[in-house]
Design brief:
Number of domains: 2
Strand content: 15-25%
Radius of gyration: 16 Å
CATH topology of the largest domain: Rossmann fold
Structural class: alpha/beta
Distance between the termini: 34 Å
Number of helices: 6
Order of helices and strands: EHEHEHEHEHEHEEE
């Protein structure tokens, strides 16, 4: 099975990539839409760093720069997918029907299989599974009450998750960041166990913030 993985570099798309690898499939390419602006569909911060993940894993990387507008975003995605001989593509969608439905319609249009292996996984089981299987998940942005500047640059290991879970309950945000409460970048994973050598600086406005990662 030859597949593409739609990847932002964050925890969910990397988990989907790992799922495909564990099934023995050939991951032919990581595909990234780099959004300059806002998008209800795709992660925005630090997506160009998928190139470093792909290089570390020895996998091809394709990307297009978009402004996030619905319509042109999937035209760019289709263009990248058509450049490879694929049986389908894999995404890290968790609970967004909007995301999943759009991806499934694209797959039908292109005659490709689509997989969303994380769909409706228990959030804490998902996060703890990543921590247990060698994923170093870096918090790269925060925008929810209860998540302050100190969370920027933290890795979601078991100790960090022990602190995150009660905060999510207290402040009523999604513990897995599904609502955009925080964004992540995977800096080490079973697909690239040597990890990425990165440096970053923090941007904080008093309520929300993000990392500028090099």
């Amino acid at each position: 099975m030859r597949v593409a993985v739609l990847s932002s570099g964050g925890k969910d798309s990397c988990a989907a990539w790992w799922w495909a690898t564990c099934r023995g499939w050939e991951v032919s390419v990581l595909v990234t839409l780099v959004v300059e602006g806002d998008s209800p569909m795709f992660q925005v911060p630090n997506t160009r760093l998928v190139e470093a993940q792909a290089s570390a894993a020895g996998v091809a990387w394709e990307h297009r720069v978009i402004d996030g507008t619905e319509g042109p975003d999937f035209e760019a995605l289709q263009d990248m997918l058509e450049a490879y001989e694929l049986d389908g593509f894999v995404s890290g969608a968790l609970r967004s029907d909007y995301q999943r439905n759009r991806l499934e319609r694209l797959g039908e249009k292109m005659g490709l299989n689509t997989w969303t292996p994380l769909w409706h996984q228990d959030p804490m089981d998902h996060l703890r599974g990543l921590a247990s299987h060698g994923f170093d998940v870096l918090v790269t942005s925060v925008s929810a009450e209860g998540l302050d500047e100190a969370w920027l640059g933290r890795v979601l290991d078991h100790a960090t998750l022990d602190a995150l879970e009660p905060l999510a309950k207290k402040h009523r945000f999604n513990v897995d960041g599904e609502g955009g409460e925080y964004e992540t970048l995977v800096v080490r994973a079973p697909m690239f166990p040597e990890g990425l050598d990165l440096q970053w600086s923090k941007v904080w406005d008093g309520r929300r913030g993000h990392l500028i990662v090099n």
